[in-house]
Amino acid sequence: MSEFVIGASAGLKPVMERVLQVAPTDAPVLVLGETGSGKEVIARAIHARSRRAHGPVVRVNCGAIPSELIDSELFGHERGAFTGAVGTRKGWFERADGGTLFLDEVGELPRAAQVRLLRVLQESTIERVGGHETIRMDVRIVAATHRHLENMVAEGTFREDLWYRLSVFPIRLPALRDRMEDLPALAAHFAEHAGKRLGGPGLTPTPADIELLRGYTWPGNVRELAAVIERGAILGNGKRLELAAALGGPTVKPPSRPPIRDADEIVTLDEATAAHIRRALAARGGRIEGPYGAARLLGINPHTLRARMRKLGIEWSRFRDPSAPEPSMQPNR
Ligand SMILES: Nc1ncnc2c1ncn2[C@@H]1O[C@H](COP(=O)(O)OP(=O)(O)OP(=O)(O)O)[C@@H](O)[C@H]1O
Ligand SMILES: [Mg+2]
After folding, report:
1. Is residue 146 in contact with ligand 1, taking CB distance under 6 Å?
2. H-run or E-run covering 102
3. pTM value surpassing 0.70
4. Ligand 1 pocket test: which of 41, 105, 192 has the largest number of ligand atoms within 8 Å of its C-beta?
5. 77 phi and psi, to 5 degrees?
6. Which atom of ligand 1 lies closest to the CA of 43?
7. Residue 288 C-alpha to ligand 2 middle, in angstroms?
8. Residues 171-203: tens digit of each pLDDT
9. What contacts 256, CB < 8 A, 6 or more positions away?
10. What residues have their beta carbon closer than 5 A to ion ligand 2?
11. Radius of gyration of the chain (CA)
């Protein structure tokens, strides 16, 4: 994948400004954006513009770690550390030493791994499983997710302390539909490549092609655009782009929410209720009553809300935003 970012001086200009600000530092970066919006492209751009550019960039898919292997994945293991550990294996941190560790889909990180990860981030040292030596690490973290991490923190599925650690410098990628000015350049880039991949010359979208592409909302963002153009090139036998057919094709389907993968993700109704109330309180700066209070947001009576909060052990003061106006609307205590 190239580090060349299309739209860097147009729709992604504000994003690239943030990239250039943070790249030379060692601060952790959190890249947020919808699926296919280019999070990995941005993560690699940060690495390429950092003082670590000549070091490794190691991408790990946080959703794909079997929980029994977490320690070994992160820290590596010594030979014979456990059954099956036939050789010494370096973990993510050691492999990324002197470079960048790209934690992709960080929202999918299992709870146990979140704890471990936080520890390494705080101490900058690791010990291999079955090893006795403490190894100092020099690793820059770039994390990415399409999930709403703040909500996950409020719901208790993502550790708050880890979130603070990772969210020092968030970079939010706009969806393609919100930066359609980049569409012609992206389409030209993908058409050129699609034509060549099919063994012919690079293809060029016509103005009519661009118009057609502009009429679509791109739920799958840049990745979907690349796929549509590739399909169009195949349908046109590598000689032209058949975009109308490519867009109408059977495979263009908005992605659905990721399914709940296992029963561990299901919390009790009380926990879910508590998380929901906390989100409402956070959104309203801790205010309960009044037109801008959490009770109104939740569609219940303020007395009912207070009673529920007491029952669920929710402290409203934790959510109080000192800048929120109308202190008289705060609950009496
Ligand atoms: N600004 C861009 N310039 C050039 N290519 C891009 C750009 N943005 C995205 N792409 C291309 O679109 C595809 C999707 O990008 P990427 O993998 O970075 O998305 P993502 O946000 O990580 O997606 P997901 O959430 O599904 O992992 C890749 O093939 C990438 O090269
Ligand atoms: Mg990605």
Report:
1. yes
2. strand 100-104
3. yes
4. 41
5. -145, 160
6. 18
7. 39
8. 999 999 999 999 999 999 999 999 999 998 899
9. none
10. 40
11. 24
